[in-house]
Amino acid sequence: MTKHAMTSANRAKIIEALKNNANAAAVAREFGFGETTILRLCKKEGIGLQHLLTKAERTEVVQMLNTNLNALATAKQLGLNHKTVLAVAKKEGIDIKAMRQAAKGRKTPRFTQWARGPGGKPVLQCAVYVTDASTARSRGSRDYSRLTPSLTTSDPDVAAQRMRLILWQAIADKRLPRGMKHPAWGLYGGPIPQTTKRLLRRLSALPWREYELRRTAAAQRLGYQPSMIDWLTNQDKARQLDSVRRSRAATLARSRARKLGMRTPISRSWQFGALGGMLAVHPDGPIYAQLTIAGFTLRWRFPVQNRADGEALVKPAVDARARVREAARNWRECPAGSPEAKTALLALLRAQHRFRDALAAVGAKQSKSWAKVFTQFDELPFDQTSRWDLEGAKRWVVAELLKHPDPPEGRSVTSLLAEVRAKFHVGKHAARSAFQFAQGKTGNRNWTTKGGRPRKSAS
User: Fold this and answer.
1) Model pTM?
2) For residue 255, how far is the Cα from the chain centroid?
3) What distance in Å separates the CA atoms of residue 39 and residue 62, rounded to the nearest whole number?
4) What residues does each domain of the chain span?
5) Tens digit of pLDDT for each residue in 290-301?
6) Spatial CA neighbour of 425 closest among 292, 296, 273, 270
7) Cβ(163)–Cβ(184) under 8 Å?
8) Are strands 128-132 and 287-293 parallel, antiparallel or unpaired?
9) Which of 64, 213, 355, 399 makes the best surface tag, with the fewest CB within 10 Å?
């Protein structure tokens, strides 16, 4: 719909049109304005609107509402605006919500609502507005939030008992407006069993690790969800500070964001890889330094005689590698595209350069793969929105197999797949798929996982 400023000429024309046709939606479509804009003009000019329904049409709407109990479906079937149908229902005294609940054989007690429970079965849920003291403004005004924990039951009597404990805790936290004078407490309030109070006090005094082992059993005993027990025992803050749960929550949040198409960093780049000692010690043999970056393996000999000297020599590089991983994780926790993420990426790039310099200082330049790995220190991790160029990977592998019918010396399928993953940001399964596609396309099956070693003769 076109949106533009309303001129005085348009205003006069719209007022004249409304006098001839008191239908805000039709006039809005005619002049290219929103219906809300036309309704606001009608209110200001004192123009009364009508639903333009004949007596027969109104009777049909009422009959359909009595059988269908759905204003939107009725409006679609009759070709009307659903607001018109709602207005008719209001004027005729038809309570669509109450009728729908009666048809389903259940009523909604005050300060509760129906929600979908386990297995899709309806359960009652608390629905009380409480003050949010954490966001209260300094001027004395308070923000309100809706407290909606599940009561895990469809029985109104059982739900009333569970509502009482929730309201009791809200009053103790001074979050229920007017406290015991609130109408919800007047409806559900009463004494709390001493056994319940003692249980909650014991759970409140426990450290988080010990409490976590008992929260599920307590929730089953009292008939709530475990998260509700956390709130009743003031353990919800300890739950939020738990490092294991925070890591799990961050992982789930990134997974949900990826499903929604949001930019969310992932941990598939080499910067997030596991740390190691970077030593390859052979019994009665030389000591080598060895590590893998982006699929390329660096390996060179150390001029030392024992493991302790080798660990001391490679320690600066190991520490620099740990700082790269820490910087990468800090970047992963920042919202994608935010100023914090840009700052974290610069810090990660500096850490990668320091790691490169530390490797060069301990002799990594002696490795044959140094030239290939050197460029990786200027590459930043890719996130979930990086376009995985699988088609480009297939074309590249086809060209390589046509260019090299037999694998060059020192090159194998493993190294080829590592190059594909590094160049096109694909996973190992996608890289293997691209290689198999190229084999079928070119008919070249001379490449082996042994690096192209000559086959043994039959004799």
Assistant:
1) 0.43
2) 6
3) 25
4) 8-45, 55-103, 112-241, 270-378, 390-442
5) 888 887 888 888
6) 270
7) yes
8) unpaired
9) 213
